[in-house]
Amino acid sequence: MTSSTWSKAPDFADSPDRVEAVRAQTVTDLQTYLEDGLQQVECRACHTCVLVRKNSFNHTSIQWQTDPASVCPEFTGAERGTARSCSRLTASINHAVMEGIVEVRDH
Question: How many separate domains does the chain show?
Answer without folding.
Answer: 1
